[in-house]
Amino acid sequence: MTANIQTIHLLLLEPSSNQAEVIINSLRNRGFAVRATQVLTTEELAQALEKGVSDLLLANLAHTSLPAKQAIEQIVTYGRDIPCIVMMESHDDKILTDAMGYGAVDGVSANNLQLLCLKVERELNSLQTRRKKTQAELALKATEKRCTLLLDNSQDAIAYVHDGMHVYANNAYLELFGFNDHDELMCVPALDMIARESQDEFRQYLKTMAATSDNQSFTFSGVKSDMSEFEAIMTLSTANYDEEVCTQLLIRPAADNAELEEKLKELSAQDTLTDLFNRNYLNEQLHLAIETANEKGDIFNVLYIEYDQYSKILSEYGIAGVDQITIDCAKWLSEQVPDEFKLARVGDHAFCFIMPNNSRIKAREMADKLCRSISQELFDVEGHTIKITFSIGICPIGEGSDDAAQILSDAHSACNRVESNGVKVFNKAIRDAGNEQDIKLLEKVQDAIDTGRVQLLFQPIVKLHGEEKAIYQVQLRLKDENGKVMDSSKVFPLAKAAGLGEKLDRWIIKQSLKSILVQKVANNTQLIINLSSVSLIDQTLVSFIEKAVAASQLPRSSIIFQIEESDAANHLKRVITLCGELRQKGYTLCLSGFGNNPEQRTLIEQLDVDFVKITENKAKDIPKNSEVEEEVIQLLDEIHARDKHSIIPMVEEAAMLAALWPMNVKYIQGFYLQRPSEKMDYDFSASGF
Questions:
Q1: Is residue 18 in a domain?
Q2: Which residues contact 336 (CB under 8 A, 6 or more apart)?
Q3: Whole-model pTM above 0.70?
Q4: 190-247: per-residue pLDDT in tens?
Q5: How many structural domains does the chain have?
Q6: Which stretches make up the EAL domain (predicted)?
Q7: At CA 489, angle to CA 96 and CA 647, rounded to 5?
């Protein structure tokens, strides 16, 4: 039994720890030694993918914060071959068809553990077969490459003949018979290169070899292209070339004093202009990286670099000017890039190198550093001083990568997407999953984050009755490279799907604290910050918040963390724990979107929050619909009965305020008070309520 136990490294996209344990135990009972990692966020999945090779992903489709589609796309981005089986609440052909359409290999009902185990076993066998096939293909390519290299560099004249015609001949063979190129030789029958008196003997040896498969050697007279003859020894043997059964001809000079053929030199690995490695050498290194990635699970990153001023320099200074800048740029890069990265020149103004055993983050940091540093350098062309900038594309090499040319092409493609002086990471998942418009929008979002075109706005939340209190809702605004504000209704869902939700939330928290210090607002000012569903299930969120607040030296009461009702319902167990941790440390909490789903009204009993904000869908209809007004009054009664502060958003006009006044609402928010502003300068004492 022990010999049959198979160890599997499993990724579990399952929010319920109890259900995850049930699945693991079922697989262990089936005979698997399970090493499972529960991943609930893009960050956790990224850490698992960078840490080592996993065999299988089991994804619960009910976990919406990290959808199975996004997880599969992230796996593809990292170059991993990890099949995914989706788990559905109940079997549904449409859901399964959709899942298989975006990359899942199969699906099963979450409660059918026996079928799940069978499908896991099948996919693991298929994965093992694919890995063996990839290894065999890589080994075959390596063997063929070594054989070709040996043939090309052999001082012996070697050729392969099929049906009497040459299909391959090395350079020594061409020189021996006086031919200048392979195409010329391919038109000449092998028999024509043997003197008439030796042809019958040649035919006889061919027949003998076909019958016995033994090697045959004989002395013959060869005929060169200029019709001169020479004496040599030919050895015939059966061989395969390009998947065809052929006859190998090996020819050596017959006499000891015959002039030895000059040994062929390997093509130089050095670029003649820059003294860097050339493209052929880089291709060899790419093949080695692919082999290592598939055998050991290592991750490599290819950085493709072009300087942006190529066309301008070519038009103003010609080829000589381009060559000079290319040489100077190569020297500068040689000083910046470690020798073990094997910097190579791959085009007129393009360079490339491979970073081994590193994450995409480190590769991005390296690329950003090169872009910053090169922009500070001065170069000289014909007495004129110019500056250059880099466009850099990054492409990962991981398990499942098998095409060096495609990897280089993908890195080049990412480089081409840089408009000028910047870095792009090739993302196959995003490219395949979305249309061109979504891809461009997502790139604008990423660029806005990276270049600081993200801005916080603050909208006051005013106390309707009693003593005023300074509270602002924090909102995010992103601008494109032209300063135009991007549509948040399109930006944020796309950013979340691409795994940028956590990054945006953490940026907002740090910048909100910084804004309080920079704008020097009142000490009791509070900012309401919304937490996305991705951050809610991030196990490191509380630790990050504590470090950020400690660094700002502001009181914990400065921040009110807001959680959407729908997100709280989807991750209730985790949100209850999160609220408890935050409350214990002294933070204030707000539940927003309350009343949107009648089935979720019990959330205000289950969650220890201070503020409850009514859903905008109902708030905006209060002046227009008496039934909605009655429903909102009931919601307010439930909130106040539990001693929590109520907030009504979407107060857009005076009629809305008049309707709210008798309802005993605690706080209001909306354009009627003030639109979101860059400054926290609202005069709460002059509100007039």
A1: yes
A2: 369, 370, 373
A3: no
A4: 888 888 888 888 888 887 777 666 677 788 888 888 888 888 888 888 888 877 888 8
A5: 4
A6: 438-689
A7: 110
